[in-house]
Amino acid sequence: MIYNKTFMRGLFLVLGGIFALVYFYPKNSDENKILSFSQKQICEYATDNCYAILQINTKKRSLKIEKYFGPFFLSRKNNQILDCGGYMSHSGEYAHIINYDGSAVSIKHLGDIMDCSLTKDGSLYWFYYYDENGALITVYDKNAKLVKEIKPHDEDVVHFDYNATDQIIKLNPPY
After folding, report:
1. What are 160's strand-pairing partners?
2. Buried-most residue among 11, 65, 96, 175 (CB within 10 A)?
3. Alpha-carbon distance 151 to 35, whole Å?
4. What is the Cβ-side half-sphere exposure of residue 153, based on CA atoms within 13 angstroms?
């Protein structure tokens, strides 16, 4: 009889733990999925001082953020928005990977940015720099970890391997 009471208590605790985990665990799948975003560029009259207002829409909320430069790109795969941190003459010091709740991770620019976007599959973020030393592409994962540096040579499309997947970057080089 002792075995049965101990077994039943253990079973009750396990089932209770599973219920609590399922019931109280954050439901990220649909409620926090970025459904859409919009951006509005604001520039001070007769200056180069510009910023963007970013609005992020999920099923659960709508969030407005006014501290980034843009342009912005939505990674549906990562449920994040990439803020390039400006481009050419309107370049900020940092780019940002923005989560559905407005939290963000910063990526320090290595110089003036010429272009940026997502890899073709939308899982990685890339930045294209060009200066007197030539061209450089830096590639980051969803946690803003540098995963690849590439020195392209007059290419419009760059291929590289990441996690056994062929990744593709389509460039808009400064000719």
Report:
1. 167
2. 96
3. 35
4. 0
H helix or E strand, kind and range, residue 55: strand 50-58
Cβ partners under 8 Å of residue 175, min gap 6: none
**CA nearest neighbour of 79 among 147, 142, 163, 145:** 142
Which pair of structure tokens corresponds to residue 173? 């080089």
List beta partners, residue 131: 134
Q: What is the mean pLDDT of the chain?
A: 83
6-to-1, 10, 18 alpha-carbon distances in Å:
9, 6, 18
Q: Look up tokens 């320090």; give the residue.
A: 108
User: Which residue, 104, 158, 154, 103, is CA-closest to 126?
Assistant: 158
CA–CA distance, 32 with 100 (Å, rounded to integer): 6
Among 16-25, 95-104, 108-117, 161-170, which is the least confidently predicted range?
Answer: 16-25
